[in-house]
């Protein structure tokens, strides 16, 4: 044959089928671009040099794996659709004398052309976009960078290698499909009918049951740690149930519509429902995929946007003061020694030397432990806790604080008799009028307060918290300190907490924090067995790391969201195109028997509107039921601003709903142009 013959046929095939290949090429280019950008950022030295940059790059490296695996799966789906649509054309070539070897040459050249265009354009755009992404990434995490175009040879090689393998596997899959099909089947592939699938009520009921269980889990779990344990199980159940309901339940819905004579026996409904029922099994899987993809995007974006916007709230929740000093001591004598007062004076001196003033001072002693709340008694010596054989929802954190420290911090004048206590708890419904801690004896609750949250050293604790303020502090603690377990001598820790706020910038805060640490390190050491171990925390020091983590999660969610949107839009588009070609002959017959274009338009809208908006509506329902679990998971990240999560989630859903409507308008127009032969007419 003439040199370049196969290349010409391959290029002609792509050009003549531009309605199919244009979105496919754009998707391939987008996948290549996204993979290169994320791979580039995962090896970017600018990010690596930043505080917390290694963590950010680990997240981005994970994202590159997700994009790579998803690209392989999704491009297989789209390529299979293209081959299915081209089978008639290949069958014609076969009938005209071309063997399957000749068809293989055409497919080889088509694959090379698509791969070449996708890799060249994707890498070119990716190289440009990568720097913009780097600037955006650094801006998100409050970093500093100048604009210079750079190329990552390692990212280029990884991208070329990955997509070369993907396109090679796509070629093998295409050759397999052509090889296993005879010429007659190829020629008549579009006319091959499907038996109407039966409504599988067993699968439909199973889908409802599984979805109900998943929703029940999401609504009933109260403990954040338990929510984390059950989250992935709930996600799997939602995915499985969604596919079962869309594949089996949708068929049942069509059957129900057919039995409704008032609805079914109308021109537009009759045609649309009849059309849907014959292919709903295949469409159901596609619609379920769209629903799952949109749900994933909505969950990822709403949570990460909320985390990023709520970074300052998270910082304040995690660190109740600008600078906080925590001390763990060996015994009561060390706790009541002069060391806390010495550290307090050194801190005051460092703040004064920098012309600053302490505010909202935190200063108290506390005995702390974790245990189980059992009918008014806190058990701290339970062996099952230390053997990790427990229900996490039963665990509490508790603190015993001297009443004099409480009075000093809150400027109160509370008096307590022996056997009396004032309490603060995050779960007031679980505490009665009397409480007891192990073998320390019962305490009568004189008063329960609600204004100690600002002094809570661990306000983001995932467990219920109980503060007990008592008189005769040392006498009350002695029996508690005698409690032992098999694994450690005492489950009770003795601590001192000291912290304060300042009205100054981060640079000044960091400077003061370093001066305090330096002064503390110069204090004389105790050579006895008693210990006084100190930890210093600063909001300013940790702010950059928080912004890197939250900004990195937001950026990664944005990238993955764009990738998943590519997929969802392409599934929708190909679904509409596929149905358009399959319905073309059917609507031609309808026009010949008297059906007007207006009636065709109504029928199309009836079919599309019935099916098209089901995924986005179902995604909204999934998101609504998942909201309680998501809000509890965010507590693990230190975010307790539920109002922010509500507004962000609603905004994300509204934006995606508007985007979905736009996709509907574009794809339904393409569908109509195919089935009616109108090139430019709008629906």
- Helical coverage, percent range: 55-70%
Average pLDDT taken over every residue: 78
Distance N to C terminus: 47 Å
Quote the beta fraction: 5-15%
Shape descriptor: elongated
Poorly predicted tracts of residues: 678-683
Strands, total number: 10
Q: Which strand order does the major sheet show?
A: 2-3-6-7-5-8-4
Helix- and strand-based class? alpha+beta
Number of helices: 22
Sheet with most strands: 7 strands, mixed, barrel
Radius of gyration: 33 Å
How would the blueprint of this fold be written?
Elements: H1 5-16, H2 18-42, H3 45-48, H4 53-95, H5 100-140, H6 153-179, H7 183-187, H8 201-220, H9 224-259, H10 261-264, H11 267-309, H12 311-318, E1 323-329, H13 332-335, H14 339-353, E2 359-374, E3 377-379, H15 383-386, E4 395-402, H16 403-410, E5 420-425, E6 434-437, E7 442-449, E8 465-470, H17 473-481, E9 493-501, H18 506-521, E10 532-538, H19 539-592, H20 597-612, H21 614-636, H22 642-676
Parallel strand pairs: 3-6, 4-8, 5-7
Antiparallel strand pairs: 1-9, 1-10, 2-3, 2-4, 2-9, 5-8, 6-7
Helix pairs in contact: 1-5, 2-4, 2-5, 2-6, 2-19, 4-6, 4-19, 5-6, 8-9, 8-21, 9-11, 9-21, 11-19, 11-20, 11-21, 11-22, 12-19, 14-18, 19-22, 20-22, 21-22
